[in-house]
């Protein structure tokens, strides 16, 4: 059995703790209206009873009128169950289509950045190696001259 959300009307599984659509918690405690103390008032003049509603002809559920026999059952609109404040949100399919060349261009930019980073790392490593070689050569030269 499914649970119907009191906030948006969306149905969620019975085991759900909150609505899958609007995230409203199902076990939220409702505020109980406070009972007002009634003050004695003077009785107002009685109002006349309203006229009874017009009698409708009784139609059994199995009996259909000739006007509705040929009509197909009305299809339920899926958008009718969604609250109006949610209808203004993005429906998920409104993303613009990009031209096909854009995909290749983005891969090219990514490749250029990756190659640039690799070149910079190689230059840094070569420079560091050269500095270490110079330092060790100077140490060897200074220790052999003594």
Quick synopsis:
This protein has 146 residues and is mainly α. It has three helices and two strands, in the order E-E-H-H-H.
Polypeptide structure, described:
The chain is mainly alpha-helical and about 150 residues long. The protein is built from three helices and two strands. A two-stranded antiparallel ribbon has the order 1-2. A hairpin with a 6-residue loop joins strand 1 (about 1-5) and strand 2. The longest helix is centred in the C-terminal third of the chain and has 46 residues, at about 100-145. The model has no long low-confidence stretch (mean pLDDT about 75).
Q: Helical region count? A: 3
Which bin fits the share of residues in helices? 25-40%
Strand content: under 5%
Shape: elongated
Uncertain runs are: none
Terminal Cα separation, in Å? Answer: 94 Å
Strand segment tally: 2
Mean pLDDT: 75
Q: How are helices and strands ordered from N to C?
A: EEHHH
How is the main sheet built? 2 strands, antiparallel
Widest β-sheet, arrangement of strands: 1-2
Tell me the radius of gyration: 40 Å
């Amino acid at each position: 059995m499914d649970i119907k959300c009191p906030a948006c009307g969306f149905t969620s599984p019975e085991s759900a703790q909150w609505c899958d659509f609007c995230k409203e918690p199902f076990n939220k405690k409702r505020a109980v209206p406070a009972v007002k103390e009634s003050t004695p008032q003077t009785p107002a003049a009685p109002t006349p009873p309203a006229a009874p509603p017009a009698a409708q002809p009784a139609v059994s559920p199995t009996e259909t009128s000739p006007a509705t026999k040929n009509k197909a059952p009305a299809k339920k609109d899926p958008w009718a169950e969604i609250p109006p404040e949610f209808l203004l949100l993005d429906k998920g399919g409104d993303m613009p289509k990009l031209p096909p060349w854009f995909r290749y261009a983005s891969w090219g930019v990514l490749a250029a950045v990756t190659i640039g980073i690799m070149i910079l790392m190689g230059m840094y490593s070569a420079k560091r190696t050269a500095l270490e070689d110079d330092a060790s050569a100077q140490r060897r030269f200074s220790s052999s001259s003594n």
